[in-house]
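Protocol step 4 of 6: structure prediction from sequence.
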Amino acid sequence: MHEHEYVSEEMLCVLAQVAGEDNVLMTEPMREHTTFKIGGPADVLVTPRTADASCACWTPATRAACP
């Protein structure tokens, strides 16, 4: 079990299937992804590579009320 209770294992599996396992990161430091190199860890960072994958990730995430 991971430390973020509001993101279920099932949700992580769905996101990994859609976006690819390497594109779903847990506790990812946002400083690696921002212009000013600042920011704490994101609970979950999903980086789909296509517009279709982005849409496919959005639907289950919004249904599960993920921030």
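Step 5 (inspection) to follow. The longest strand covers residues 24-29.
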